[in-house]
Design goal:
Length: 354
């Protein structure tokens, strides 16, 4: 980081910490006392501030609401075993945030504002970082277009916000997922690789339909043929086939996940062969049937490493090996957590100690 930025701090009159039950933390429902905001006007970011968490006044004409110029990210802050506070790979999320901003014709956020905003917020809301094992403070950066204008063009003004929410893993059990072959999440040349609101909006209806059939999540397939696996929408997907880690390669329709990238690096370090390539539905289904596929999991910041227990495809349900036999994903998940919580040395320099 370069110069120290001028961030105005307004403290909440009263903390909600005392009335928050840290044993009941559904993902994304409980917010810490404060939030960070910055405004982009006339070509520059101004009004950097930490204020009490709460509603933000806005015109109902803002272009984010009408034309979907809205992007976000997800990171986690951990309370380490030695007491330090660490954020996992925030610079990767900053880079991806600006890739999304570029694709959505939005203003870029300077690294200093992103990082110093996080640091200021964590300093004031440090007590909101949970200490239970497997828990963390999820950090949600979001940027939205604020021009009150109904013409279709990129907005000239934006708000950048950082929210934080104490949380455990997004999923609490092995997942029953459906391979989706009717609806699509992303198309070549579209915005699938960007973390933009519309990608999530378009997934909600098919997701709700799948939930009615008892599924927890969808596995998206390519829009052209529905023959290749892409991602899960809330996470990337990783399989273990013939002892190798196999994951759909990142392309214009697949998010370049930070957890995915981290797992690939850890697997290689552990001497596990990794293949990033197109992964066909056929290969996965046949792999379950002939026993060559021994593990499958969702990998994401919110999802962490969540085993996939069952896969639904064309009306049939395929059961994967019991979670207790999943030595590859369990081993990687343990190493990953040990690094994040400071149990083992951070050889890759991934932890940003705040
Ligand atoms: C994250 O893992 O940070 C995400 O953004 C996934 C979220 C949509 C639940």
């Amino acid at each position: 980081m370069n110069e120290t930025l001028d961030i105005a701090i307004t403290r909440a009159d009263q903390s909600r910490l005392t009335v928050t039950d840290f044993s009941q933390l559904p993902f994304g429902k409980v917010f810490s006392d404060h939030m960070f905001l910055a405004d982009y006007n006339n070509g520059e970011w101004t009004n950097l501030r930490v204020i009490p968490y709460g509603p933000v006044p806005m015109s109902p004409a803002i272009s984010a609401l009408h034309y979907g110029q809205a992007i976000f990210e997800g990171m986690k802050a951990y309370r380490q075993v030695g007491g330090k506070i660490s954020v996992f790979r925030p610079e990767k999320n900053w880079e991806r945030f600006n890739k999304s901003a570029y694709r959505m014709s939005m203003a870029a956020i300077p690294q200093d504002i992103f990082m110093q905003g996080i640091a200021a917020l964590l300093e004031i809301d440090e007590k909101w970082i949970p200490s239970q094992e497997g828990y963390s403070l999820y950090i949600r950066p979001v940027m939205y277009a604020t021009d009150p204008y109904l013409g279709v063009r990129a907005s000239d003004s934006y708000t950048f916000a950082l929210l934080t929410t104490p949380t455990g893993p997004y999923y609490s059990k092995a997942l029953r997922v459906k391979i989706e072959t009717e609806y699509t999440r992303a198309d070549d040349g579209g915005v699938g690789y960007a973390k933009t609101a519309g990608n999530y909006a378009r997934s909600l209806y098919p997701f709700a339909e799948a939930m009615k059939d008892g599924f927890d999540q969808l596995i998206w397939t390519d829009a052209a043929t529905h023959e290749f696996i892409e991602e899960a929408g809330t996470a990337n997907l990783i399989f273990v086939i013939d002892g190798k880690l196999v994951t759909p390669s990142v392309r214009s329709t697949v998010l370049d996940g930070v957890t995915r990238d981290t797992i690939i690096k850890l697997a290689k370090e552990a001497g596990i062969e990794v293949e990033e390539r197109r992964v066909s539905v056929k290969e996965v289904i046949e792999g379950i049937e002939n026993g060559r596929l021994t593990d499958a999991f969702a990998a994401g910041t919110a999802a962490t490493v969540t085993p996939i227990g069952e896969i639904g495809y064309e009306g049939k349900l395929y059961t994967l090996p019991d979670a207790s036999t999943r030595t590859v994903s369990a081993g990687i998940a343990k190493t990953l957590n040990d690094i994040r919580y400071g149990v083992i040395p951070d050889e890759f320099g991934w932890n940003w100690i705040v």
